[in-house]
Amino acid sequence: MYSGYNKILRIDLTNETTEVENISPQFARKFLGGNGFGVKLLYDIVPPQADPLGEDNTIIIAVGPANGTILPGAAMCAFITKSPLTGIFLDSYMGGHFATEVKNSGYDVIVISGKLQKHKYLVIENDNVNFCDAQGLWGMETTKTQMKIKEDLKNSEFQVACIGPAGEHLVKFASVICDTRASGRGGVGAVFGSKNLKAIAVRGDRDINVAQPKRVLEYTRDTFEEMKKHPALGKNIPIYGSTGSVDGNNSLGILGTRNWQKEFWKDASNISGNSLVENNLRIGHKSCASCMARSAIFFQAKSGEYKGITSRGPEYETLYSYGSVLENDNPDSIIAADRLSDELGIDTMSTGVVIAWVMECFEKGILTTKETDGLEIIFGKHEVLLDMIKKIAYREGIGDLLAEGTKIASQKVGKGSEEFAIHVKGLELAGHTARGLKGMGLGYAVATRGGNHQDIRPGAERSGKLDRQIIDGKPEHVLKNQRMCTIGDSLILCRRHSEPVFGQYLSEKYVEVINMLTGFDLDMGELNTIADRIYTLERMFNCREGITRKDDILPPRFMKEPIPDGPSKGMYMKEDELNIMLDEFYSLRGWDIETGIPKGEEIKRLGLEN
Amino acid sequence: MKKILVNKDKCSGCKICESVCSYQKLGDKFNRRKAAIRVVIEGELGEKITPIVCRHCKKAKCAEVCPVDAFYEDQNTGALIIDKVKCIGCGLCAEECPFGAINLHDEFEIPFKCDLCGGDPLCIKYCVPNAIVYEEEHRIGASKRERSGN
User: Fold this and answer.
1) Is residue B62 part of a domain?
2) How many Cβ pairs within 8 Å bridge chains A and B?
3) What are the chain A neighbours of B32 within 8 Å (beta carbons)?
4) Range of B119's domain?
């Protein structure tokens, strides 16, 4: 028995019709759930060269066998589509309680195709799907939108995933927000906007069956005991969330600072988790579904024009993108910017990195106040942050250009600004170094959604378990790390639980958990094959769009400029190092060394011929 | 008597208690909509989190309004229990409970209400932040009286 319903809900927005389709047990075993289901359906449904913001693009919402159970960290929901920011495959995962309601409503996958004629939102409750008028909601921020819809439906049990003004204005990195959680990266929100879809409200009453419920209960209880003793999960994460990484990364000299001109920052401690907590900016915490880590921290700004603004965040990535990468050491402004970004529905990582690019353009005289409506966009100046976020979200003034993302903006402005545009394949980089960790660098270069820190994880190299500056063994490390992420994203588990408990690679623990949920009799060999099938299909989607080896590179800055100072001084990714690693990585993956395209025999081995 | 004591300040809203409760009640599956304990999440950013579970009141409104006298006290645990044979599933008890701690579901004739699992409640074993504990009722409010309780 598979832990799911084996059902796909297909929603055609153009004709406002729905259809329920069964998933065969063979399909479930081949693709597992979440990420796996999503990429297979996207590959089959979206025609090559489709406009990501056109009617042909499709949004796949998928959950996996762990969602809706009590398995630690089983909160994540997959949003999979063709990205308007990168033009390639996109998977973006949201925590909170949305995945549980999707599962409770009786579906493993919701496929949303076509385009609504008018602004509407969807209400999905078990067998019922309604298309509701959203004219009054258009223009509304995300918190108000969620509250209004719950009020209209007279039931607070609904989870509402919605877009804000940024999605409506087709900002290429607009997010989808539910509760205070985001499907943040790559512009799922813009795809919603392009379809005139403001929100999806879901609630369900259906039972969730797993193959061995008693074992799931025992397993969870044992794991909780183990987690309570874990130094991060049991002690630090409930207090600091992910914010501890500011100090951690800076102490290694790998904190993206000043648009990555530097990776060591003397003022980092002003925005570190320690400082936020010591200065009493932390006012509470909560958790996603089935989470014991309680890592969702509420922070409240205490001074200046930001005083009193509360946000569920910032997380580490936002302390990087609105803090260190802008050389902004004002924590209150970061809290306010984090909240504003959630309200407008915009990805904090891409937004921060594109602003950092503008700041460097300013520094170099490539952009001046003439192009920025009089605003002086300079490093360290927190006063411009909120204005810039609004300009981007509403596409006002220079915001219209920046809303296209760092890649397009730098191509349009030119004058050498492409050299310091920090993206891979159009996706702005997360706050983890590509120069100071060789495996991370390779992982960024080959990640299927672009500059992504969720296909490759920094943990093994950052902790010193692997020598961070050698390239030997890194292609294999990246492959194994990607397999873990792919399977985690198919179940769908939060990394915050899976990494400390299961480690960086797939192991018998994953096999045990998947089998107790699904009743499959997988072994490690088959699990690795499933992971490879999913990841190679993502690559095939990208290759169909024209991606080849030439695109598997890092921003020029990381391949030409050594880190100038701090503990990682002198480190960078030499071109021949990346090339040696790519050769080996493609061989391990069964992708052609010359082109980076999956080879026929590998496609056949994985059963992806049709 | 021992009761499930709630410290809402410690609850993080993971809802594992709901799932575990539903497993206990249904036997072999999970369904948070069929649980006797519920976690209500409210507020602009979902910051107001309250676990709701039967308080086994001594002058229980639910028992008072029950038209068929289906409520009785368990001799061993002191829990207020619904007699499944007597109960007619009218829902009056759910309507009267001042806390909303009694839940109805389409598929069931009898409401879902905490029965303390016969004196060994499963939910509290899965609450990592100890927002719900099974303790003597004179400990109610203890965390507010005693600094160490936080």
Assistant:
1) yes
2) 97
3) 100, 104
4) 2-142
